[in-house]
Each structure stands twice: as C-alpha cells, then as structure tokens.
Design brief:
72 residues; mainly alpha; 2 helices; 49% helix; 0% strand
Length: 72
C-alpha cells in the first residue's frame, strides 16, 4: 500500500461506515472497552473515606500509591 499525502484535512477520507446491527460491531466495541480498561491509569473504589486527621489521610494516600505502583 502506497503512502498518500493530503494538503488539508478536508481531502482525507472519512472513517469507514459500519453497517448497523452487524455482529462484528459488538466484538470491536468490547475490544475497545478492554483496551481502555488496560490503559486507564487510575482505578478508584467507589465510596467515601473519612479520616480523623490530615496526617491519617496522607498516610492512607501514601499506602494506596505504594500498592498501586507495586501492582503494575
């Protein structure tokens, strides 16, 4: 396949249209969802955390960051 040059974005072809209700569309969507899940940097558990002091909150944050860095 050769390399094509375009002078502007308007000259570039658009994305290929997918046919509606094609079963392959679902496979593509789940593949993209899996990719974004793997690329996501921050994963937080839902909910609210309360701390009695600023020091306690900082200590919790340091422990969380340490466990996240070792998990990767």
């Amino acid at each position: 396949m050769g390399v094509r040059k375009f002078r502007s974005v308007e000259e570039m072809p658009g994305p290929v249209a997918r046919t509606p209700l094609d079963p392959d569309n679902l496979r593509i969507v789940f593949g993209l969802m899996s990719l974004t899940h793997r690329l996501a940097r921050v994963r937080h558990a839902p909910g609210l955390r309360r701390f009695r002091s600023w020091d306690e909150a900082l200590a919790w944050r340091m422990r969380r960051e340490q466990t996240e860095s070792t998990a990767r």
